[in-house]
Amino acid sequence: MGETVLYTTVCCENTPKGDGSFVPLQVNYQERFSAAGRTSGSYLKREGRPKDDDVLVARLVDRPLRPMFDKGWSNDTQVLQWVLSYDGVNQPEPLAITAAAAALMVSDIPLKKAVAGVRVALLGEGLWVVNPTAVQMAASRLDLVMAGTKDAVLMIEGFCDFLSEEQMIEAVGVGERAISKMCAEMEEWAAKVGKPKRTDRVLLPAGLEERVIALTRDAVEAAYRAPTAKDVRTAAVEAARLAMVAAIEASGDFPGVTDVQLQMAFKAAESSVMRGLVLREGTRADGRGVTDVRPITSRAALLPRTHGSALFTRGETQALCVATLGTAADAQRIDGIRSAASDSLAGDSDSESSGPGAAAGRAKDAFETFYLQYFFPPSSVGETGRVGPAGRRELGHGELAQRALEAVIPSKDDFPYTVRVESTITESNGSSSMASVCGGCLAMLDAGVPLKEPVAGIAMGLILEPDGSFK
C-alpha cells in the first residue's frame, strides 16, 4: 500500500497435533527499523523479541482470522509478518490483517471466507476516511480498526474523542462497505490462483453430538440456572461431563471414540444449553437477565503510601488499581518506525498530537505521558502459572483500558505530569479489562488528576442462533 511493504507467509504442520477444541494459530508480526531507514537505538542492533506495539498488531490479525477456520482444524498454523518498507504515510495494521487472510485464502489451509481489514478516521464533523494517512490520523477524532467478511463484521477495535452513538454506527457502516468490496475481489483472486483446501480435521462420529446433548442437557441446564458462584457451577458442569463419558463408554455405541471427540461434543451440548437459555428465556449463567449487571462495590484511597489507589469489584471480578504521578523523566519511551520516514510528523519528544489517532502515527522516539499497565496473575483464577514479563493478553487488555481513559487525561498545559496506572487483577470472572477502566479512573481521581470526565467500562457479547440469525 503506497510504499509500505509487508512480507507475509502462512505455514501449517502436515499432521494434526491439537485436540480439535481450539485453533492452534500463532501470529508473529514485527516492524523492522530498516523499513524506515533506521537502526535500533539499543545496544544490540539486531531485532529481538517483538515490541509491545508489534504484539498488539499481531492480536489484531489473530482475532478476525481465528473464528474463520473450519471446525475441527487442529494442525499447528503460523502466520509470519515483517514490515520491510514504511513510507510514514500508509499505516500497516489494516494491511497486515488483509495480507494474512489473503495468504490463507490462496494456501491449502481451510479458511471459510475471505477476510479484510480497514482503518476508519473522522476528520472534522463528517468527513470519513478509509485507510487514512498518518497525517490524517494525527488529526482524526476516531481511530477505528475493523475486520470482516463480505457480509459480516468480525472485529472492531478503536477509540475516539467523545463521538455520538450515531457517529459510531456510521463509522462501522463506512468500514463494512469497504471491507465487503475487498473481500469480493480477494475471493475472485483466490478462485484463480488458490490451492485445493485440506480436509484433515477432527470430526465427530455420526449421532455422537445428539447423544451427548440428550445425556447432559438437564444437568447442564440446572447448573446454568442456579444462582451460584462460578466454581460451584463449573464443578456441576464437570460432573455432568464425567457422567456422560461413563455412559457413552458403557453403551459401546461409539467404538473408538476419543476423549477429544467427546470433549468437542460436550462443548457443543453446553453451548446449545446456554444459547437456548439466553435467546428463548433471557437468562444467563447464574440466573441473571441479559441486561443485569453484577453487584458493584468500590473503595478509593485504601493504600496509605501511594499517590492514588482504588479497589473495584464487580461480582467475582476485582481490580486493584494504583495511580502514580511523575515528571517528564518518568514518561514511557516508544522507540519504533512510526513516522520516522515522514518529515511532516517528525518533531521533538514533547510534541503532542491533537486526536485519538495520534497513537497510529507516533513520532520518532515519542514519549507517552499517560500509560496503563495491566497484570493478570494466575492466582486471580485459582491457578498456578508463569509469572514474569507481560504476556500478549496482558498487553492487549492494558492497551484496551488505556485507550478508554486517554481521552479524559488533561493536556500537558493544564497538568504537566506523567501518569502511570497499574491494574492488578485479584480475582476474575470476566470483564477484567473493563474493571481496570473503572478502577483506573477512581485511582487517578484519588491521586488528584483533574480528569475531564469520569469513565466507566463494560463488556458485552452477542449470541446468535446456530444459523447465524439474531432475534
Automatic annotation (TrEMBL):
Q: Name one GO molecular function term.
A: polyribonucleotide nucleotidyltransferase activity
Task: Give me the ranges of the annotated region Disordered.
Answer: 341-360
E.C. number, please? 2.7.7.8
Keyword set for this entry?
A: Nucleotidyltransferase, RNA-binding, rRNA processing, Transferase, tRNA processing
What InterPro entries does its record include? ExoRNase_PH_dom1, ExoRNase_PH_dom2, ExoRNase_PH_dom2_sf, PNPase, PNPase/RNase_PH_dom_sf, PNPase_PH_RNA-bd_bac/org-type, PNPase_PH_RNA-bd_sf, Ribosomal_Su5_D2-typ_SF
* Enzyme class, UniProt record, top EC level: transferase
Per the database entry, which stretches of residues form a coiled coil? none
GO terms, biological process: mitochondrial mRNA catabolic process; mitochondrial RNA 3'-end processing; rRNA processing; tRNA processing
Is Protein biosynthesis among this UniProt entry's keywords?
no
Provide the Polyribonucleotide nucleotidyltransferase RNA-binding domain boundaries: 208-288
Q: Which domain of life is it from?
A: Eukaryota
Q: Fetch the Gene3D superfamilies from UniProt.
A: GHMP Kinase, N-terminal domain (3.30.230.70)
Quick check: keyword Ion transport in the entry? no
Range of residues in the leader sequence:
none
A GO cellular component annotated for this chain's UniProt record is: cytosol
Exoribonuclease phosphorolytic domain: which residues? Answer: 1-110, 115-177, 293-450
Low complexity bias: where? 341-354
Q: A Pfam family name for this chain?
A: PNPase
What does the sequence similarity comment in the record state about its family? Belongs to the polyribonucleotide nucleotidyltransferase family.
PANTHER family named in the record? POLYRIBONUCLEOTIDE NUCLEOTIDYLTRANSFERASE, POLYRIBONUCLEOTIDE NUCLEOTIDYLTRANSFERASE 1, MITOCHONDRIAL
* Protein name per the record: polyribonucleotide nucleotidyltransferase
